[in-house]
Write a structure and sequence with these properties.
There is one protein chain. The protein is built from ten helices and five strands, in the order αβααααββααββααα. It is of the alpha+beta class and about 260 residues long. It has a domain of about 130 residues: Bacterial polysaccharide co-polymerase-like (2-Layer Sandwich), CATH 3.30.1890. Helix 1 packs antiparallel against helix 8, helix 4 packs across helix 6 and helix 6 runs antiparallel to helix 7. It is rod-shaped.
Length: about 260
Amino acid sequence: MIVFVAIVTTASALAFSLTQKSLYEAKASVLVNNQSLIATLQGITPQSNTQTADRDMQTQALFAQTTPVLKEAVQGTSVTTDELRAESSVTPDTNADVLIFAVQNHDPGLATKLANQYASAYVAAKTKADQAKFAAGIDQINTALGSNPTSALRSQLLDELNQLTIGRTLASDNASIADVATDAPKIRPTPVKTGIIGALLGLIVGVGLAFLSNALDTRIRSAEELAEILGLPLLARISAPPRSLQRANDLAMMS
């Protein structure tokens, strides 16, 4: 039974694997700088810890999956925003400030193209968002400078304007492509891996069924087992009846 179940399970797993349509996955990575540029320009060293860094990277991963970024990533392809959302993932690296953009598709070339476009779309969106933080302050200072401030206030405003201008320039480097996708390895089907898993599963199921069958089998298979059940000693054995009686299906004692 064990061998039979293992063979059937393995064959079924292989058959299922071979019927699957080929699927490929391409990956691109982006280096992310989450340090506060304003604090850096002011000479302040921000205190950071692992939890804060992890939360910042998770925030960036969620930002990368917003509709505007996805919409920009699918430009020039037949893939829709919803399809890319369903067939992709953005995962923070556990050991570095890096986001990994993975895209799956039945076309390896399209998967590679989408992975690179997705990473580039995120970089552009983050750069725009980070620079916008400085743009508002720059506009306010320019408005204040146009209202004829005092000499001391004007000097202070110019210093702040210079810092914000530098910060807006530096914000363009807050995210950059670390590694482009060059190929898209096949991730499905994997007949060998699936067959091994099917065989192991079949062995486990087969052993379980064998134990279950043995536990549910109440038939008496030996004289010794009968003696144990009845609590009586075995005194003698009657030999098997002749073949003629066996073929006639007659009772030996009556014959």
